[in-house]
Amino acid sequence: MGSKNILLIFGLIISTYIHVASARGVFNVMKFGAVGDGIRDDTQAFLKAWAATCGDPKGIPKMLVPRRRTFLVGPADFVGPCKAKNVTVEIGGTIVAPLSTRAWAKDVHTWLKFNNIHGLTVNGHGVIDARGKAWWEQSCHNLKHQNQPGCTSLQPAAINFWGTNAGTFRDMTVKNAAMFHVTLLGLDGFEVYNININSPEDTPNTDGIHTQNVKHVTIADSQFRSGDDCVSIGDKSSYVYVRNCHCGPGHGVSIGSLGSGGTDAQVEEIHVENIKFVGTMFGCRIKTFQGGKGYCRAVTFKHSNFTNVLNPLYIDQHYFSNNPIETSAVRISDVTFDDLRGTTDIRTPSAISMKCSNVVACTGLKFNNIHLTPAKPGTKLVSTINNAHGAILGRVEPPLVGLKAAI
């Protein structure tokens, strides 16, 4: 056999080995029985593909949801821990939820849940469509039939990352969630980049991303259009960074609500910057219930722009309550509003509202370079301040009337 033939055979062997080795680490849902026509149920195929991916100890195994196909998937729990240190789920196609709410007979908390998986990356430029219309119509939060008999107070979040430390979610579209689009719960270290959240403006309780009991989370370079908070930062969240995002329509970037039912809130080191708020109900907001306890501290809102926003800067310690009687409150302190400018919807002339508790004052508030003007020229804007202590470090428009000296 000539040397050229030997080299050719050797090259074929090497290329075949590389192909097989790489294929071993990729688990295409089609190989596990998925149809991908958007009609037949592919849930079991997805779970089988996940079991194989999570059970592969070599390299960075990948579960692949291929492009140009639509997969109908019911409620599914993708559970770890996995054998490999890092795992990828690449979604190139479209995943759709069942149209009927009856698919959630047992657990209505979540549609797609990633549970206890270290080093998980979910990406792929695909679409996750929760098709939540049936849930919106029967929601108790729907103003058309609020609290009517038969309404549901709990709807499934589209995607839930639970205990998924050192994780990443990026380059995806999530739309039409029944309730929250993405929830980050009970985790330490998670990054969200280039996510497009999209639901109609009138959909109830459809927060873009909600955090609770998390540390060291970054949410960046993303677009939010929904019927509720673009980002809501819940209890026991710390070192959360939200930056370089578009928000609107929606209810702004909110911390809270905190202190419901007299609970002890623990929220600190929340930093929000370079957000474009467009046509939102709120901009930078902190909301707490009366009777709560604990703290919300070390918060910054900075370098952001508002376009026709109803309530650009807002602290509300009487959330969902008209009762003036208070016994306790979440203590809000060390909140900085810096370099915030734009226009406010004149339906609410109070562009800056600091409605702090009557029994526990807000302290350590700082205001610097705030310039808010009415979207309709000629309208006078005002501020509303209650039991708030702080300092004005630079120009603030409209003027802060009633801000007490720092204590």
From TrEMBL:
<keyword id="KW-0964">Secreted</keyword>
<dbReference type="InterPro" id="IPR012334">
    <property type="entry name" value="Pectin_lyas_fold"/>
</dbReference>
<dbReference type="GO" id="GO:0004650">
    <property type="term" value="F:polygalacturonase activity"/>
</dbReference>
<comment type="similarity">
    <text>Belongs to the glycosyl hydrolase 28 family.</text>
</comment>
<keyword id="KW-0134">Cell wall</keyword>
<dbReference type="InterPro" id="IPR006626">
    <property type="entry name" value="PbH1"/>
</dbReference>
<keyword id="KW-0378">Hydrolase</keyword>
<keyword id="KW-0961">Cell wall biogenesis/degradation</keyword>
<dbReference type="InterPro" id="IPR000743">
    <property type="entry name" value="Glyco_hydro_28"/>
</dbReference>
<protein>
    <recommendedName>
        <fullName>Polygalacturonase</fullName>
    </recommendedName>
</protein>
<keyword id="KW-0732">Signal</keyword>
<feature type="signal peptide">
    <location>
        <begin position="1"/>
        <end position="23"/>
    </location>
</feature>
<dbReference type="GO" id="GO:0071555">
    <property type="term" value="P:cell wall organization"/>
</dbReference>
<dbReference type="GO" id="GO:0005975">
    <property type="term" value="P:carbohydrate metabolic process"/>
</dbReference>
<dbReference type="InterPro" id="IPR011050">
    <property type="entry name" value="Pectin_lyase_fold/virulence"/>
</dbReference>
<dbReference type="Pfam" id="PF00295">
    <property type="entry name" value="Glyco_hydro_28"/>
</dbReference>
<feature type="active site">
    <location>
        <position position="251"/>
    </location>
</feature>
<keyword id="KW-0326">Glycosidase</keyword>
